[in-house]
C-alpha cells in the first residue's frame, strides 16, 4: 500500500508542478513543471516513486516526438550548427572525464552510477 501512496503522491506533485509553469508561460510546462516539482520534493526528503510501464511508454512517445521533429528544414540547418556539432562530443568527453572521478571519490557512488551520473543527460 505504501508504494501505491508514494506513486499517487508523485503523480499529484507532478500535476501541481504544471500549474506555475503554465501560469508563467515557461517552456514545456508538462515536462519541466513536474520535473522541477518532483526535484524540489525529493530534495526536501519526500519519498517518490514511478510506475515502470508508464515510464517506459512515455520514454517511447518522447523518442518518437523528438525523432519526428527532424525535418528537411532542420537538416538544412546542419551547416550553420557545424561548430556546435563539433564541440558537443568534446564537451561530453570533458564532462565525463571530470564528473566520473568526482562522483566516485567525493559522492561515493559505485562505478556504474558514477558513470551515468557524470554523463550529460545521464
Automatic annotation (TrEMBL):
A Pfam family assignment: AbrB
Any one biological process term the GO annotation gives: regulation of gene expression
Transmembrane segments: 27-46, 58-75, 81-100
Keywords, comma-separated and alphabetical: Membrane, Transmembrane, Transmembrane helix
PANTHER family registered for this protein in UniProt: REGULATOR ABRB-RELATED
Keyword check for Transmembrane: yes
One GO CC annotation: membrane
InterPro entries in UniProt: AbrB_fam
Native organism: Jannaschia seosinensis
Entry protein name: Membrane protein AbrB duplication
Amino acid at each position: 500500500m505504501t508504494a501505491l501512496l508514494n506513486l499517487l503522491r508523485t503523480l499529484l506533485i507532478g500535476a501541481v508542478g504544471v500549474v506555475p509553469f503554465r501560469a508563467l508561460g515557461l517552456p514545456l510546462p508538462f515536462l519541466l513543471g513536474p520535473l522541477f516539482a518532483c526535484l524540489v520534493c525529493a530534495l526536501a526528503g519526500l519519498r517518490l516513486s514511478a510506475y515502470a510501464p508508464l515510464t517506459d511508454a512515455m520514454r517511447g512517445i518522447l523518442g518518437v516526438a523528438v525523432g519526428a521533429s527532424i525535418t528537411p528544414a532542420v537538416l538544412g540547418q546542419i551547416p550553420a550548427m557545424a561548430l556546435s556539432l563539433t564541440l558537443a562530443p568534446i564537451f561530453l568527453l570533458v564532462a565525463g572525464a571530470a564528473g566520473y572521478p568526482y562522483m566516485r571519490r567525493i559522492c561515493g557512488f559505485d562505478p556504474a552510477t558514477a558513470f551515468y551520473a557524470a554523463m550529460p543527460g545521464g
